[in-house]
Amino acid sequence: MRPATDKTSCPTCRQDRSCRPGAGTTLGDGLWRMNPLAVQVLGICSALAVTNRLENAMVMAAALTFVAVMSNLAVSCLRTIMPRRIRMIVEVTIIATFVILFDLALQALYWPMSRQLGPYVGLIITNCIIMGRAEAFALHHGPRLAALDGLANGTGYAIALGLVAVVRELAGTGRLCWAGRTLLTLPDWRVNLLAVMAPGAFLVLGFWIALFNWLRLRGEAGR
Amino acid sequence: MRDSLGRALLFAAVLGAICATLLAVTARWTAPLRERNRRAEHLRHVLGVLAIDYPPQADAGDLVAIFERTVTVRRRNGQVLYWRMVDGQATAVAGEFTGRGLWGPIRGLVALEADLTTIRAVRFYDHEETPGLGGEISSLHFRNQFAGKRVLDSTGQVRLIIQPASTKATGPNEVDGLTGATKTTRRVETMLNDAIRRIRREAGR
After folding, report:
1. Interface test with chain A among B28, B29, B33, by most A beta carbons within 10 Å
2. How far is CA A192 from its chain centroid?
3. Residue A16 pLDDT > 50, yes or no?
4. Residue A111, min C-alpha distance to chain B (Å)
5. Structure pTM?
6. ipTM of the assembly?
7. Close Cβ partners of B115 (under 8 Å, ≥ 6 residues apart)
C-alpha cells in the first residue's frame, strides 16, 4: 500500500480525486494543462539554447522524451524497493544512464546533429522536467501510467520547443529547413540577430507562454 | 528494514553495476561507428578544402579510398601538409590551423594553390563563436570569398586582410568582414595569416 502522504505530494491529483489519474488526465496534463514549458516553465535552459533551428529543437525534444519515458518507467518499477534515503541519487543515476545512452547513439548514428547540439544533450541530466516527473509522478504511480506521463511531458515539451524554434528560425534566418530541405523562405530577409541569439528565445517563449495560458485559462473559464 | 544503511548500500551497488554495464557495453559497441564518423568528418574537410569532389553519400570507406588516391600527407616540423597530386604534380596544398576565437578555440583548414600565393579555399570546422554573428565564419557566403584571393600585399609580404564590416573589400588580398563580429574576424585574420606563412615555409617557398 502507498503511504497516505503520497496523496498530498502528488501534484497531478485534484482535491476531489484519489491518487489515480486516468490515462487521459495524465496525457492532457503533460500536453496542455501542466505543459512543462508553458505552464510550469521548466527546462528553460535547453529551450533557449537549441531553438534557433527547428531540426535541432526536435532532436532535442526526442532525446528528452526518450529519457523521460525510460527514467519514469525505471523509477516507477523500482519505487517499492528503492531505499528512501538514497532516492534522489538513484533517480539521477537512472536519468544519467539514459541520457548517455542517447548521446552515444546520436554520435554513432546521426553525427552531424550530435555536433550541432554539442553539450546540450548531456545537459538533459540536469533538466528539471525529467527529475520533476520522476519525483512528482513516477514515485507514486505504476509503470504504465508513469511511462505515459513521460511521453506526455516529452511531447508537451516538443510542442512548445517546436513553436519557439519555428518563429526563431523564420525570424532569424528567413528560412525554415528540415532534413536538408528548405520548406519555406521569406522573401528579401536579412538575418535578424535578436531572433538568432538567446534573448530572442526569451521573447518568443514569453509570447508563446502568454498565448498558451490565455487560451488555457479562457478554456477553463468557459467550462 | 527498508531504510537500513546496508540495504541502501546494496541497492546502490546493484543499480550502479547495472547502469555501468549498460553504458560500457553501449560505448564499446558504438565505438567503431563513432570513430568512423569522426574520421570521415575530418576527411570531408580536407577533401573539401582541396576542392576534390566526392559523392555526397560517400561513407567513411569511400572517403578513405578517395583520400588515399588523391592526397599525399607530409609532415614537416610538426605541420601536417595535405598535397593534392594530379598525375604526380602537386596542384594545391592545405594545412590545419588552430587559434583563439572569441569564446573558444577555432580550428580550420586553409588550402593554397601550388604557386603558394593564391588561396584555394578556407574552412572552419570547429568553433564556438556566437551563432549568427561570429558563427557566420563557417557560412558559405563568408568562406567562398577567399577562393582566388592573393595572400601577398604589394610589398610581397603575406598579408591577407579581412576588412571591418564598414569597409568594402577591394584589393586582391582583401575579403569582407562580418557585421557584429569584429573580434572574431580580427582573430581569424591573424590565425589565417600565421597559417599561410607556416604553410609557405614548410611547403618549400
Report:
1. B33
2. 27
3. no
4. 6
5. 0.78
6. 0.81
7. none
